[in-house]
Amino acid sequence: MATTRTDNPIPRPTTHSRSRAGVALQGGSPVSWAPKKELEVSEWAAVGRRIGAIGRSIQWLLGDWIMYGNAKFGERYSRASKITGYDTQTLMNMVYVASRFTTSRRREVLSWSHHETLAALEVEEQDDWLDEAERHHWSVSDLRTMLRLARKASRGSEAAIEAPEDTLAASPMLRCPHCGEEFAAESER
Q: For the residues of 79-105, what is the DSSP string, one character each?
């Protein structure tokens, strides 16, 4: 049986607790959510959509926020880390990915992690892979698998160029792990 400690220095959240930044939270704490009142299913669903949208965009928001601060105020990651509670390396990664994809090139139907996976590629390659991931509904894992297969096929194609002509085969085929569709591996990928 659990016992309640009365000497706990951490205050218990109330239905109107505040986060470290002083922002009122709706009936919860920084690590919980609870409604202020009984909700209808449509209200509950609306809150879920909002929470999901925030969760899917938080890396973009923080990356853009830090880029703005760096440009406007010359801020450093250590200050942003203190403000947000995220470690410096995580924030640097968010900025890197946000800086590699202008707002107009970000795909709302794909996660930040899809974009993170492609951030090191050239812009045209990023767009090609984003198109494929969107068209085939690839998970991040699927996208990473396809990238590995394409790189492996590309290395094989490079080796085939030096091989005798009679051993050259058609372009290797890649199979989408989600839908099973096959398409030729292009050496520029």
A: HHHHHH---HHHHHHHHHHHHHS-GGG
Q: pLDDT for 152-185, tens place per residue?
A: 988 776 554 444 444 334 456 677 766 777 766 6
Q: How buried is residue 32: exposed, middle or buried, by Cβ count under 10 Å (0-12/13-18/19+)?
A: exposed
* Separation of alpha carbons 178 and 156, rounded Å: 24
Asked if pLDDT for residue 121 goes beyond 60, the answer is yes
Q: What tokens were used for 158?
A: 């490079």
CA–CA distance, 9 with 31 (Å, rounded to integer): 17
Q: What percent of the chain has pLDDT over 90?
A: 59
Q: Residue 94 contacts by C-beta under 8 Å, 6 or more apart in sequence? A: 59, 60, 62, 63, 66, 86
Residue 146 to residue 134: CA distance in whole angstroms: 13
